[in-house]
Amino acid sequence: MAVPVLHIAFFIARLVSNKVRLRHEGVQKTWYILAKLPTPMANEKRFWFHAASMGEFEQVKPIIEYIKSHAPASQIVVSFFSPSGYEHQKNYPLADAVVYLPLDSKPAARRFIDAVQPSCAVFARYDLWYNMLVALKDRSIPSVLVCATLNEHNLLVRFGTGRDYLRRVFNSLTTIYTAGASETAKFERLGTTASVVSSADTRFDRIAAQVTLAQSEGTQAFGLSKDFFCNEDVVLILGSSWKPDEDCIVEAMKRLEQPLQARLRLIVVPHEPTAQTVIRLREILPSSEYLSVLQEHTASAVAVQQTTPQHIIVDSIGKLLRLYALADAAYIGGGFGAGVHSVTEPAGYGIPLASGANIGRARDAIALHDEGALTVIRSVDDAHAWLATMLQFPTIRKEQGSIAHKYIHSRLGWSERIANVILIRQ
Fold first, then answer.
1. pLDDT classification of 339: cutoffs 50, 70, 90
2. In a shared domain, residues 145 and 277
3. pLDDT for the residue numbered 104
4. 3-state secondary structure string, 150-190?
5. Each residue of 41-53: pLDDT tens digit?
6. Domain span at residue 174?
């Protein structure tokens, strides 16, 4: 019953939604793209990776990279459900085909699996479709779920009919790799009969690799001179910040004693760096400059040093992960709104963290807070106390940063382990 209703809902939605219309048009191209795939040779394998969108795809990327580096003849098919994921990754270089996943009717599922003919199917985190899983199982094709989590407050999990349905879905899988022991316990309480393995978020492997690269590049990677920051400076990144985050930190900074305030260098990376946002940030941070302007400097190092601003406002996207390499501490935005953004990237650099109080839906933020690496900020007074501590006590910065570093680096290696299981199983 649910699938026909979903079809009707999508038919109506595409009349008014550009995203749904884009997805519908993309699904029509899926069959053509798959039909053009070359048939694998006898010693080649084809692996299908599915992700709902961009964030979930980051969790399977390191697995794909390992497979392609150790079995380069393997073919990779990637599917997305959302246009945001597809549009950003449709030219992903390690994939032989990037397509939209059709809606989960029995005929479409069978057609899709027969067109892909995967040696193994890998799903990221949660985006599972029952008819697809049944079609895989009927053809004896292994299916793996990675970075699996289970929200026990979800209505499907809490009530009998929903629990029965979810149990059937998960039991159709070959192996479930959870995001940790606590998640494994949830699947066991559900009564899942598939093999459940406690693992870790595979994104940690990708984060560690990117951290190593960014740390080797230094300030020059961002168009800044190597002496842009002094040894006495404490560099604080406001990552994925919103107005309440920025207002709180800037007001807390103004309350610092002048010698401390002079040592604090902010790099503000707004979640949405619109013209209106970056202009407002220049107004509340007078001694600041846009990163794009700093990158355009062609004057000598001496001339640049004479005009060095105290703070940097990042007026473009795509730089945050690498910018964390310059930071002594990081404040992650979103915690005064819908929820804190990802804390794992800055944690990978081994720096102390802080955020607003809304961390309840962020498993990693909760864990880092419990372990002492992340400070929860509820007010300007809290932010003032945290900034003062970061500026005056480098030992505390180091201790908290070490906890964050250990949290990420003690969980590495699962991409390789899962990829090896996939390769060996074939």
1. very high
2. no
3. 80
4. CCCCCHHHHCHHHHHHHHHHHHCCCEEEECCHHHHHHHHHH
5. 777 899 999 998 8
6. 2-201+412-425
Confidence label for 219 from pLDDT (cuts 50, 70 and 90)? low
Tell me if 190 sits within 8 A of 214, measured CB to CB.
no
* 147 and 257 together in one domain: no
Of the candidates 329, 323, 331, which has an alpha carbon nearest to the alpha carbon of residue 219? Answer: 323
Residue type, 326: L
Of the candidates 369, 401, 366, 119, the one whose C-alpha atom is nearest the C-alpha of residue 236 is: 401
Q: Does residue 239 sit in helix, strand or coil? A: strand
Residues 57 and 173 in one domain: yes
C-alpha distances out from residue 83 to 17, 27, 124, Å: 12, 10, 16
> Same domain, yes or no, for 262 and 394?
yes
353 shares a domain with 218: yes
Q: Which amino acid is at 26?
A: G
- The count of structural domains within the chain is 2
> What gap in Å lies between CA 277 and CA 282, rounded to an integer?
9
Q: How far apart are CA 226 and CA 246, in angstroms?
A: 27
Q: What is the pTM of this model?
A: 0.83
Per residue in 249-300, pLDDT (tens digit) is 999 999 999 999 999 999 999 999 999 999 999 999 999 999 998 888 644 4
Is residue 237 domain-shared with residue 124, that is, in the same domain?
Answer: no
